[in-house]
Specification:
By secondary structure, the chain is mainly beta. It has seven helices and 21 strands. The strands form four sheets. A six-stranded mixed sheet has the order 3-4-2-1-11-10, with helices on one face.
Length: about 475
């Protein structure tokens, strides 16, 4: 994997590419591959962030209790796919069958801060988590962004209940801090999931004929969510791309055929992705005036379903977005690097410097990571910053790492600084090499000092970039 350049202070607007997935997986296990779902073979720059919202993850008591102690199979699956490509899991939250995962490229980790998660149960009058919403919010280059994954009540006749539950989720989910306490206070809110809105009035035959003829616009005006957006004020600020793909529910398993069971459920766009930009506090600048510093805007590049996945009765839906960012935070709070060349079997030194506003703590630590690490706790070794400090100057400080914990086989690694006060990684080094211990290398004649990466199967992208 090629080393990434960390963003430089004072750069012009940055285009941040976000790929968002929503999928009701119907208690199924992960599929063999997700190459096309994640657009891993698409042309152009790689995604900067993946946000994956799942519904109906297997939530039997035995599975749920084990997932509380260990990562669930879906989290492990996506980490296995994305970590070799340089993505790190920065946030995850699960509420029974609802799961929300956020992955970001290494270079962005120092600029993703104030990560908080919340959940709201709405099943059984708020006592059961089979329905409801899970949210993760974060500061992205100083801008507050929130992701809300929902599973709302089913069935055609429950449109009002769906709206009531969504309003309840918006009211109940509060975050610590005065700046952005509620979901609607964020600069950008992404709302997605199995929202369960159906198509009213039309019969099964008319809906299927319209779908077969790709006349989706005939169905838009009777889509319950589109209808609600025209009358419900709290929905009118939410935007959505055009529904130019087939309704994503309900399919026979491992098939592109709509429900052939005795129930013959009517197809519907139950799986949706919407977004809302917070209205500006100040009026837009007049002609000739400078725009407000630190702006953020979002545009949709592609809104699509993925018909090739048949593990559940829903097809996954993705939204690919460009975020135009003028950073409010353009320098990492901590800059760190290895001192000199590192070799296994020898004590080594890390040099780091901090910005004046950084809230250091006795519980801060520096971790040594393999380049394809999965999350901040996936370190090879770590050292408490204050306990292992060996020198302190105006410009930088140094911390030592003991030889006994360095990996004898060597390889390519990163250093990360984890802040206890901020509960996130606030600094990351460029990749560097640790030379193997010669004794270890001599014992293993097959060792060549280079890690292998797993190749992913190719698949065609649904969106043109």
């Amino acid at each position: 994997m090629e080393p990434e350049e960390l963003p430089a202070a004072g750069e012009e607007d940055e285009r941040f590419r976000l790929h968002l997935v929503t999928w009701n997986v119907g208690t199924a296990s992960p599929p063999p591959e997700v190459t096309s779902l994640l657009l891993l073979n698409s042309e152009g720059p790689a995604m900067d962030m993946y946000v994956i919202g799942l519904q109906e993850v297997n939530s039997k008591v035995v599975n749920f209790l084990s997932d509380l102690a260990f990562d669930d199979p879906w989290s492990i699956f996506f980490m296995a796919v994305l970590s070799p490509l340089g993505y790190v899991k920065v946030s995850s939250i699960r509420m029974q069958g609802l799961l929300l995962l956020i992955f970001a490229k290494h270079a962005h980790l120092p600029f993703i801060r104030d990560i908080q998660s919340q959940f709201t149960r709405t099943g059984l009058y708020g006592y059961w988590g089979n329905k409801g919403g899970v949210a993760s919010r974060l500061s992205l280059y100083g801008h507050m962004v929130c992701f809300l994954n929902c599973h709302l009540p089913a069935h055609l006749e429950n449109a009002e209940q769906r709206l009531d539950d969504f309003e309840h989720i918006l009211e109940m989910q509060q975050f610590a801090g005065e700046k952005v306490p509620g979901i609607l206070d964020h600069d950008i809110l992404f709302w997605f999931g199995d929202l369960n809105f159906r198509i009213e009035d039309y019969g099964l035959h008319f809906i299927r004929e319209s779908i077969n003829g790709s006349r989706f616009s005939l169905l838009w005006e009777k889509d319950q969510l589109n209808m609600a957006k025209k009358k419900e004020r709290f929905l009118q600020e939410f935007r959505e791309g055009p529904l130019k793909f087939k309704p994503t529910y309900k399919f026979d398993l491992y098939s592109n055929e709509y429900d052939t069971s005795g129930k013959k459920r009517k197809p519907a766009w139950t799986d949706r992705i919407l977004w809302r930009a917070r209205p500006p506090l100040r009026p837009a600048p007049e002609e000739g005036e400078m725009p407000e510093e630190g702006s953020l805007s979002v545009s949709l590049r592609c809104y699509a379903s993925h018909m090739g996945y048949g593990i559940s009765d829903h097809k996954p839906v993705t939204g690919t977005f460009d975020l135009e960012i003028k950073p409010l935070a353009s320098s990492p709070l901590v800059t760190l690097r290895p001192v000199g060349e590192w070799s296994a079997g020898h004590d080594v030194t890390v040099s780091y410097s901090t910005l004046p506003e950084f809230p250091s703590s006795a519980w801060d630590w520096i971790g040594l990571y393999r380049v394809a690490f999965r999350h901040p706790n996936d370190y090879v070794m770590y050292a408490w910053v204050q306990d292992n400090e060996i020198s302190s100057g105006e410009d930088a400080r140094q911390v030592y790492l003991g030889a006994e914990e360095l990996p004898a086989a060597g390889g390519e690694f990163l250093l990360g600084y984890y802040s206890h006060a901020l509960q996130c990684m606030v600094g990351i080094s460029h990749p560097f090499q640790i030379q193997p211990n010669r004794t270890s290398a001599e014992k293993d004649p097959l060792w060549d000092g280079v890690g292998a990466t797993e190749e992913l199967d190719s698949a065609s992208s649904l969106c043109d970039f």
